[in-house]
Amino acid sequence: MSDILFQRASPAVAVRGIHLDLKGMPPTAERLVQLPEIFAELKINALLVEWEDTYPFTTYPELRCPTAYDEDTIRRFLDNAAQHGVEVIPLVQCLGHLENPLLKARFKHLREVATSAGELCPRRPGARDLVLAMFDDVLKTHRGHIRRFHIGGDEPWTFGSCPDCKAFADKHGKAALYRDYLMPLLEHLNAQGIRPLVWDDEMRRWPDEDLKRLAAKADLVVWWYADKLEGKAFGQDLVFPDLVKHFRSAGAHWWAGSAFKVSGEGDLPPVEKRAVNNLLWTREAVNQQADGVLATGWTRGSVTCTQVGGLETAWDSIALAAAIMWDGDMPPDAVAVTRAHLATGRCKDLIGEPFSKCFAASLAFKDWKQKMDTHGGWQWMERSASISFEPERINPFTDRRFFSIDKFRDELLAGVGKARDVMAAHRGLVPEFWLKRYVAARLFHGLNRYNLLVGSVHTDLRIPDSVFAEFR
Ligand SMILES: [Zn+2]
């Protein structure tokens, strides 16, 4: 069954890339170093690596998270990628989604708007220098290993709204504001023989003249994650194949940006829907001669959103995206075929076994959470909590007569066991620090809500602090 995938003698798409969004459930150093071999097994030949705060930044060490990799790990990862024929394309954001630096006091004066932590002001003195320092930090380890560098650039929500930028944009246009900011960054990379890639969403409204100047220095990554290649995007009605034609007519090289995992779709990707998106973009990439397809896998909607499941629970979606990029098509019953593929041959040890363990544990945890979020027991507890404001009327037997709090408490605490299972399945693959964060984000809200409601009436039934301490 599994030999239905990767059938063609040569691939439909020349550069088949997978995006690693490391700001959610990053792999352990050992797993990271192993990834190029795994991806090569899936005939993936490019990795778009969004290091985010896992990178060992040196100019501004405060940009590192507590589990940031060391330089040796980065170099071993790059060496392994080269050895397995996998091109690494690092990604460092240049304008929006810069919450990591802009939430810190040292850099907040560089925000476009004081009350939005995501966007840099393109005209503020020191703003471009911060981005260049981050680029150069990444280049320090990647130089000699890379020929492309993704500079992000998507979704700068408040772009052009500070008084200085607004005055400039009113006079010259927003495209010129963006372009003037971008050019020195592009030239910095071009001078080192590196081709920059940039997300296309801001350029969708650019005049031809500006597009032509950009196209000389960078490639556009046209992204859209729906199951049709058209729709309303940031207030624009777009037909993406037409947009690509427009970019190409301005001389732009382009990449298709699909998605194997979207943060808004929950912890486990809806694989069929993701496959449709990947297939549509793969066909468009073939029709309109894209330089490649980059299948993105978002772990957080932005730096400041809760994470969803990481790589280890998405291998089915990743492998199917890889097969689609290779074959230019997908077989009937594609999800079952892909899961069977992961359970055989070399894929079995590298991906299949960890995937089946992590997936089963995460699915059980997800089902538990869904059941508890909508449990009818909460209403009974709300009722008993209300009467607690008239203490003399509290009937200590009421809750046990109409609704068994003890049983509800047991059901709630069953989540603790499932959280432990998720952590055990991922152990060695994702650092303990992030596993605790992941399960706590799903566990603590319900436990806190329960304690708040039950606390004044049945203090003996409170969930003790020791339960929380295990995941802190
Ligand atoms: Zn500004």
Q: In terms of topology, how is this protein built?
A:
Elements: E1 15-21, H1 29-41, E2 46-50, H2 71-83, E3 87-91, H3 99-102, H4 127-142, E4 148-150, H5 163-172, H6 174-190, E5 195-199, H7 208-215, E6 219-223, E7 230-233, E8 236-239, H8 240-249, E9 254-261, H9 271-287, E10 292-297, H10 315-327, H11 334-342, H12 345-373, H13 377-387, H14 398-402, H15 405-426, H16 432-454, H17 465-469
Parallel strand pairs: 1-2, 1-10, 2-3, 4-5, 5-6, 6-9, 9-10
Antiparallel strand pairs: 7-8
Helix pairs in contact: 1-2, 5-6, 9-10, 10-11, 12-15, 15-16
This protein binds zinc ion (ZN).
Zinc ion binds at residues 112, 121-124, 162, 164-165.
Describe this structure in words.
- With 472 residues, the protein is an alpha/beta fold.
- It has 2 domains: 2-342, Alpha-Beta Barrel (TIM Barrel), CATH 3.20.20; 359-469.
- The protein contains 17 helices and 10 strands.
- The chain has helices at 29-41, 71-83, 99-102, 127-142, 163-172, 174-190, 208-215, 240-249, 271-287, 315-327, 334-342, 345-373, 377-387, 398-402, 405-426, 432-454, 465-469, and strands at residues 15-21, 46-50, 87-91, 148-150, 195-199, 219-223, 230-233, 236-239, 254-261, 292-297.
- The chain has an 8-stranded parallel β-sheet with strand order 3-2-1-10-9-6-5-4. It has a two-stranded antiparallel ribbon with strand order 7-8.
- The chain is globular.
- It starts with 14 loop residues before the first strand and ends with a helix.
- The structure holds zinc ion.
